[in-house]
Amino acid sequence: MNEGLNDLHVSQRRTEELDWRDASSEERTAISPRTRWRRQKTPTTLRPDKGVHLATVAPHVAYQRVARVRERAGEAAAFVDLDGTCISDRCKRMLPFYVLQALPLHAASWRAILLVYCLVLRVLNLLGDDDFVRIFLGGVSVDVLRSAGHRAAVMMSRKAHEPVLRQLFALQRAGAKIVVVTANARPLVEPFIVDVLRFSLPPGAATELAVDAEGRVRRDSPVQGGWNVDGSKQKLVETHIAEHGISFSIAYGDQASDVPMLLAVDEATVVNPKKELHLEADRRKWQILTCRPSEMHFETSQHEALRVAIIGGGWAGLYALKHCLQQGLDAILLEKTDACGGLWVYRPGGGGVFANTIATASRGYMQASDFPFNENLPEFLGHKDYRLYLEQYVAEFGLGAHIRLNSLVTAHMVEETADGKQRHRLTIESTLSPDNKSTIDEKDAQKDPRDDAESLREETCPSQLTFDRVIVATGREVPVIPPLYGGFTGTTLHSSVYTEVDQRYRGKNVLIVGGGESASHIAEEICTVSRTCVWSIRTGVWFQDRHAGMLAPADMRFGRLARMLMGNQVDRFGGLFNPGVVGLTGFGWGPGGSGVAAWQPIEDNVMKSWANKDRNFLWHLSTGRLKPKRAVVSVSGSMVEFDDGESLSFDVIILCTGFKAKFPPREPPLEKHTWYKHVFSCEDPSTARVGFIRPTIGSVPAMTEMQARWVAAVFAGEKRLPAEAAMRATASADVARRAVQFPHHHYKMPTLENFWNYTEEMHELLGCRPTVLRVVMRRGLKGLKMWIKATPNTFESLLLNADDALSGWAFGELERQRVSYKKAKSGLSVHKTAEVGHGASRMVFASAILPLLFKLLLLSWALMLCSLMLRPSTVMEFET
Q1: What is the CATH T-level fold of the domain 481-544+590-657, as seen in this structure?
Q2: What is the 3-state secondary structure of 327-344?
Q3: CATH 3.40.1160.10, applies to 307-476+661-761
Q4: Residue 321 scores a pLDDT above 90
Q5: How far apart are alpha carbons 248 and 286 in whole angstroms?
Q6: How far is CA 694 from CA 121, 363, 711, 742, in A?
Q7: Whether pLDDT at 322 is above 70
Q8: DSSP letter string over 99-133?
Q9: Fold of the CATH domain 44-82+161-304
Q10: What keywords sit in the KW lines (predicted)?
Q11: pLDDT band at 280, cuts 50/70/90?
Q12: How far is CA 173 from the centre of its chain?
């Protein structure tokens, strides 16, 4: 095996400059003699045990270490470039790279000069975003990044090579030996690939590449004739892959730089090629596969991907399914109804949205981070638009084949195998009618589903299925019926069965209980047909319009600047900047309860409560059709007594008292209130919950997507959880914090969280939080401005995404919202709401004045601090 290994080093002669794109097969063979490579057609289903590998992308010094790799010839090997040394010709022309390389500068001076130079070019728009990232963070100068421990390179490489690393990790789980050839094994690789080989370069072996023993470009290397990235990739293929006949395929080819590598082989399969690579593959009649990572299946020989069950097909379930498949997990979604969408599916008999539902959160909060809404849609969409959006989401990411409808999970049993691992056995019953059920043979029911993956594709699932991980995404679907109303002799119904106003409510005395947005919608409709309509809100509530002005969504106005002034972070300053103290809460959001004394909230800070973003009912209050009341004290027969002592008679009571979660019976049961970040069970981290979070201001889907991404990353091994003791301590601390943060609501909404704090915490756990420095380096000063104005929604993490299309869309979305708000503000003269009951709310041209007030307040604080700093002696004399 080791015979002639020294001959694999690069010869001293210079390789002839050829146009490899035009060279024929005979010419290439004559130039680079090699053994004929074993022809093998790579099927769509990749077989790692046969030697097929993905992402053959070699670093500029990789082929110097081929001798060490040959010892593992015949096993599935994968080469991934973690140095990112490819730079565009435009970068080379604009940056005096070779001039700086020849200067005897310390690494710190290198970084400083390079950063300043790049920032100047970026601010002057002389350097594109992609070129800027490649120059400073992509590894143009190994010297610059080495002294920093490759920290900057790791951050960008983690995104740039994320699809490739996912495939490598899936191959490793499938039993393939993964060999990563790199001059310096970075921490980036270790969470994905356990077997990492570190190579030491033999002294004097890289004369042609002109690199030293540590893999750095030598300072005495000539300006012309240094290392050649494409040539080194080709040499790697010639001396190792083609010579040993390893089957070859490449995924996510990076344009023209991968073409020379493929020219060394006669036949190849190209997966998801980009433009240049696609043209070359089409010209050479290679097999071209176009598929998503979730659609690329691996036939396994020793190990298999973790099987994940996702219970529930709403927003949370679909997000969890998409990200699990993207991580290479074998996931299946179980939905008990005949359609995905959860509460956003309209059902005439109830159990879904109302007939005229319009979302109270803008589309900026409701859309997925990687699948934007149509630009022509309004800011606030109806339930039909959202239902269509979810169907398009399923189709876009190929989720349909992994969804099993009409499958109700009735039991959840956790078992321990002989090797000490936990398995989750779910008992599943079909909710199809008996006439539509397909019979299941007893033999098939007892068969292990791992023996036949196609059994999951039948109309009805087997009675039991076994999984390695379980994600519960059922949401809150069980109506909460307070026992206080059990003695009512009239008609009592829950908002879950309400769909639209009809004759049942005409001429009746109706009482609506609850302060949520469903109560607002029902009250607005029923008061137009009922004889009397009374609305009882026990603890009061903050009401807010959907729009801050005529067009702009109100929720998009609460960016980082508003968070600084109104968020809970300011509490650390002893309440000095509390919005309730300085009066900004009342000015920006209007008086508590919209000026109605009976609905005055018990909290003076909306951030410590929650807001109802539907106040279209205000006009009906002013006309007397709708009457406000506080808490209900007692119910007897048809009489209802309120806390002000008044008793009224009612025919119908509609309870808008919310929902609670119901989980499949689990053995053994899990402890309550031991959920780490509302997601992972501290007792059993193989079980996770997604979508049970509740924001003060914001939207559940935006927070849910971040949870789904985190769960998938943890289950795939990309992220790690703390020890059980640490998770329990954090969960207990979070409970205590919420008790202080939401003193009047934490007991009835235990998952209530501040939207900004929680989403940024998820960004931190995922490693995608866009700090000021990262945004400036990626998007320049314009990016900094957008970062300040943006809400910390899911697309914020995409400001640094390696996928330019997604990152560009995220940046454009922020710009669109900014322009939309400016147009709305310019068209707004005075925006008044209806004058209601007790002196009420003359709201507000806040959307026009509030930003100016914020700036003046910040200026006053700055002046106060400056005055204290400039007069220290006066302060000391005063204290003495």
Answers
A1: FAD/NAD(P)-binding domain (3.50.50)
A2: CCCEEEEECCCCCCCHHH
A3: no
A4: yes
A5: 12
A6: 44, 18, 18, 12
A7: yes
A8: HHHHS---HHHHHHHHHHHHHHHHHTT-S-HHHHH
A9: Rossmann fold (3.40.50)
A10: FAD, Flavoprotein, Membrane, NADP, Oxidoreductase, Transmembrane, Transmembrane helix
A11: low
A12: 24
